[in-house]
Specification:
It contains five helices and seven strands; from the N terminus they run ααβββαβαββαβ. By secondary structure, the chain is an alpha/beta fold. A seven-stranded mixed sheet has the order 2-1-3-4-6-5-7, with helices on both faces. Strand 3, helix 3 and strand 4 form a beta-alpha-beta unit.
């Protein structure tokens, strides 16, 4: 059942692996999680949850520090979140499926400064579930911001880093 959900994007509340969040915090404290949910483990300074009336796609991200985005991976949502990341003008790290052949990836990475193609497959978790399988797709960290060389230093050990 869990594997089927990973393939179909049935759930939008898969948690970022804790070890990856530790690495992101080495880069900078997470100031904003604009697509949080009640099960989130990001623990940003600002957590915006749509269920609580805070739509991260509509609100302004500026002035909140590093924005960490692990958006819903559904086909209808991914282009919207990627457009917001690309156009926000903020320092953003987004964790997304590495699907560089898709229209949303090609259209909404024009302002990208760096990326880390993560080695292996991530094991996302859900609250109350144990032994979730690894994702059936590769993942990538995308970076919009002013310090791509720091991004490279921090994330190089996690995979291949490209600087634009």
């Amino acid at each position: 059942m869990v594997a089927k959900a990973l393939f179909s994007a049935v759930h939008n509340d898969w948690n970022t692996p804790a070890e990856l969040l530790r690495e992101i915090r080495k880069f900078a404290p997470i100031g904003l999680d604009p697509c949080s949910n009640e099960h989130s483990v990001v623990n940003a300074t600002h957590n915006w949850n749509l269920a609580e009336g805070k739509d991260g796609l509509l609100l302004d991200w500026t002035g909140k520090g590093l924005v960490f985005v692990n958006p819903p991976y559904t086909r209808s949502q991914m282009p919207k979140w990627m457009a917001k990341c690309n156009e926000s003008g903020c320092e953003v790290i987004a964790l997304v499926p590495h699907r560089s052949d898709t229209a949303w990836y090609q259209k909404h990475t024009t302002n990208l400064r760096a990326k880390c193609e993560l080695s292996g497959r991530l094991q996302f978790g859900r609250k109350g579930e144990v032994n979730t399988p690894k994702a059936p797709f590769p993942s990538v960290l995308l970076y919009w911001g002013a310090t791509p060389h720091l991004f490279e230093q921090v994330f190089l050990r996690l995979g291949v880093v490209w600087i634009k």
